[in-house]
Amino acid sequence: MDLTDAQRAALEHVRERSPGRTPLPVDAPITVNFHPDRAVAGRTVIEGLLADGCFRSQFETGISNGGLTAYPGGDRDRWEERMFGGAYQRPGVRAADRPKYGALNLRHHDDGAAPRFGSAHLRLRRHVRDRTTFTFGDSNNHPTAAGTADAFDAVLAALRAHHGEGALERRATPGPGRALDDYVEAQIHGPLSLPDDVEAIVLDSSFTSSGCGTAGVAARLAERYGVRVEWRAGFRLAPGAVPAEFRGPEVPMLALLLCERRGVDAVDPALIGAAARDVVADPGAWAEWGGGAEALQLLKYLWHCLVRFG
User: Fold this and answer.
1) What's 264's DSSP letter?
2) Residues with Cβ < 8 Å from 291, sequence gap 6 or more?
3) Most Cβ neighbours (<10 Å): which of 37, 54, 63, 124?
4) What is the dihedral of CA 246, 248, 253, 254, to 10 degrees?
5) pTM higher than 0.90 for the full model?
6) Is residue 67 scored above 60 in pLDDT?
């Protein structure tokens, strides 16, 4: 993989600041969580993957399941300037050169390492770790423990301080990890190509029969790029089980509304995704929920409830 000067400088900046050269001691995959059915530029995210054959950063797409701050002078731009020594603020750096974000799936959970960012995930091939930097915790929280796959000392120390000495010795745990905040973030430098860098795309079972066509697009994606498609047991949550204290009292009411409109008895990722596309298509119809931006925020909170309690 040929990296740009900026990408090599970002990796070296993190590596040079490592207190040692202890390699990542476990064979854990990097996963990139995303919502496959969200609409952007007239198509869903998974349709974009099918068309482009690569996964793009927020600097390119303008969409995110976190904060929308990927622009010059925005929060993400400042985080990257601090983390990578200004490598991506150099003249001539393109949006396409920016890192892509995932997390290290230390215990091989089937919902990926950071499901707060989406119901689906890409599981990356092992070689991608060689051009990845890692932080203990999300970059928006200004993490101080950072490293690379060949200089993992600071992240390893932070993991052991937080989870105990056996943090990396625990066996893989089947089922969901339900991680909303506790993960090792991975910043992948260079392109993310489906045929070259992605081992599998893992989808929630609610999309096997959803109306947005995610399952059909996934099958075409597998045929075109040789990426394996895997299905995991889906998240489901009855409206009455959505706790008002977790993300606010409006969230259970929204869950009930969505279920009543669709004539179903539980919330799942496909239901939330359909509502999100409706908001984008007609934000005025969601005025009682605060309009487009606020309704999307409430749907994000509902997704968090589904990850935590579903």
Assistant:
1) -
2) 283, 284
3) 37
4) -90
5) yes
6) no
